[in-house]
Amino acid sequence: MDLFNLDGKVVLISGAGSGLGRQFAETLAGAGASVVLAARRREKLEETAQRVRDKGGEAICLELDVTDSLSVTNCIRETVSEAGVPDILVNNAGIAKQAFLTDISEDDWDAVLDTNLKGVFMLARAVARSMINAEKPGSIINIASVLGLRVSKALGSYIAAKSAVVQLTKAMAIEWSRHNIRVNALAPGYFITEINQEQFADGGAEEFLKQRVPMGRVGELPEIAGPLLLLASGAGSYMTGSIITVDGGHVCSSL
User: Fold this and answer.
1) Per-residue pLDDT tens for 154-188?
2) How far, CA to CA in Å, does 126 sit from each of 30, 40, 80, 132, 180?
3) If you compute the radius of gyration of the chain from its CA atoms, what whole number of angstroms results?
4) Domains and their CATH numbers in the chain
5) 153, 197 contact by CB (below 8 A)
6) Which positions are catalytic?
7) pLDDT tens digits, residue range 83-133?
8) What is the DSSP secondary-structure string of 205-221?
9) Strands 34-39 and 181-188: what pairing?
10) Does pTM top 0.85 for this prediction?
């Protein structure tokens, strides 16, 4: 038996237009799942969908703003109508605003918390409700961050949201386990993606991180595929409430 096989499974992925979300889509489609790609920017979703289809996978695209409850409701309804009740949710939509806490605007603070925390809650709840109503077991994978476990300067809003996602994941796990819904989180370290490319533009941040990460480098996107498949598939069937770091040892580096 292939523990990592996802044939016949329906996966909803938020923030699927680029970066980690695109990698998640290609990974899960490659394991046999039908992927529903959701994000605000439809044109970026279509690029991801084409990459999936070029490799023989199935993908549909839906517009989604995780900060808008009506958008979340509509996305779930359309997912069920077009693909079926999701078996797996990858709760990946996120933004970052780099600013010191004394300088960040209230609007930017609210935007980060609304997307990275409230949005995670609303989408997970909507998917869990659909699973429960259909009496269907499932797996919810929230995307946290090493910055939910360690801190850094000028990213206070992001840190606050991601640390809350870590605890929210555990709360969801204990509440929904009786419905055979597993809830876990991935906590990626530094991968160069669209969300953080400004930080890495001059090369200085990458060189700094190489000194702090025990493995001496930032991550490459395919390196998150294995942990994702573990949580999505039957290979992780006895895992819930787990937070898996994929960070080259960053969280255990010496202070």
Assistant:
1) 999 999 999 999 999 999 999 999 999 999 999 99
2) 26, 18, 12, 10, 16
3) 17
4) 10-246 (3.40.50.720)
5) no
6) 158
7) 999 999 999 999 999 999 999 999 999 999 999 999 999 999 999 999 999
8) HHHHHHHHSTTSS-B-G
9) unpaired
10) yes
